[in-house]
Design a protein that fits this description.
By secondary structure, the chain is an alpha/beta fold. The protein contains 13 helices and five strands. Helix 4 links the parallel strand 4 and strand 5. Helix 2 packs across helix 10, helix 3 runs parallel beside helix 4 and helix 11 runs antiparallel to helix 13. It is globular, with a radius of gyration of 22 Å.
């Protein structure tokens, strides 16, 4: 049975058998999505895919209780345009750790984090939170978005799309999908399915904006391509059919990951997350930890204990936070 947590009393929630409860938590920021889609695109998309995942899981496991937490309009690494509301990567990680802890302390230990936002730091923050809560409370928190997105951008869905679409994809279309980074073909198709009333009809007239290397993407680049409209991809190719088929493929893959971890208790590791998670400088505390290591080396070189005492007494301050804030300013436009 699918239940909305916000509509239950705590007595009703407390009566549920914890071992057979699966909690879904969608989380995505408000962010610009070109001239044709609303700021809430990622949030609406996350709510839609969460509902689809909940329905599929419920149909496969009717003896379980599926719990839906209201969507959180929070995220990091969004494009800094008017209306985009986002936070530091650490805020996303810590917020999800706190939410996960609140659930896990009361026995709700099977949790799924869902997002449509593709900001690299955001995806890693979700995966970090899932790992932290899972280890701290000996539970299972799953964030399948990174694994699914990686498969999409590497062309992993092309064969299935060719089988299911009314027309097979051309080589040109496949090349466009691999660089469909933001507010393009896929996201516009998803909104035509989830909230068609919020898609401006002139999306059909938007020319493709192609950026081959996602590592170049930041605020400045986004403002310099496509007349600064704020999209990178081919929104004019979007269709409701494409949104329906691809979202179903995403949902099925996510549920496979969830089942293996929650039902079968498998430890999946890298195959259940994005490869970004394993890149040290993508982690939330990379700068802080690097400064700490550097400080440790400096302490050793400059005399060790006397310098430690000076730091403790406040005579010397190590500004780790300011260094991190500088990095945030440098990378906040990545998406």
């Amino acid at each position: 049975m699918i239940r909305k947590v916000a509509e239950l009393t705590w007595f009703e929630l407390d009566e549920l058998e914890r071992e057979q409860c699966l909690v879904f938590l969608p989380v995505s920021p408000l962010e610009q999505h070109g001239p044709h889609m609303p700021l809430g695109m990622d949030l609406f998309g996350a709510e839609f895919l969460t509902a689809r995942m909940a329905e599929l899981f419920d149909s496969l496991h009717p003896d379980w209780n599926v719990l839906l937490i209201p969507a959180l309009p929070v995220g990091s690494n969004a494009f800094d345009f008017p209306g985009s509301l986002f936070t530091r990567q650490r805020v996303v990680r810590d917020l999800l750790v706190d939410y996960g802890a609140s659930l896990a302390r009361h026995g709700f230990k099977n949790i799924v984090l869902v997002s449509v936002h593709g900001g690299t730091g955001h995806i890693v923050a979700m995966e970090e939170a899932a790992d932290i809560v899972s280890r701290r409370f000996k539970c299972c928190v799953v964030s399948p978005v990174g694994a699914v997105a990686t498969k999409f951008f590497s062309g992993g869905y092309f064969d299935e799309l060719d089988e299911l679409l009314s027309q097979t994809l051309t080589a040109e279309e496949k090349a466009l999908l691999k660089v469909d980074w933001h507010a393009g073909w896929w996201e516009t198709s998803l909104m035509l399915l989830a909230r068609p009333d919020l898609v401006k009809p002139d999306y059909k007239n938007l020319d493709p904006v192609v950026v081959e290397d996602f590592r170049r993407i930041n605020d400045a680049l986004c403002r310099s391509v496509g007349d600064g409209a704020g999209y990178m991809g081919a929104p004019a190719r979007a269709t409701r059919e494409f949104g329906e088929i691809l979202s179903n493929l995403f949902v099925k893959d996510a549920i496979r990951i969830i089942e293996r971890m929650v039902i079968d208790h498998e430890v999946l590791g890298a195959e259940a997350r994005s490869p970004l998670y394993d890149i040290p400088f993508m982690r939330t505390d990379f700068v802080r930890n690097s400064v700490a290591v550097g400080a440790g080396v400096l302490l050793t070189l400059l005399g060790g204990i006397p310098l430690v005492d000076a730091v403790r007494k406040g005579q010397i301050a190590i500004e780790a936070e300011s260094a991190e804030d500088h990095l945030v300013e440098e990378t906040r436009g990545e998406s």
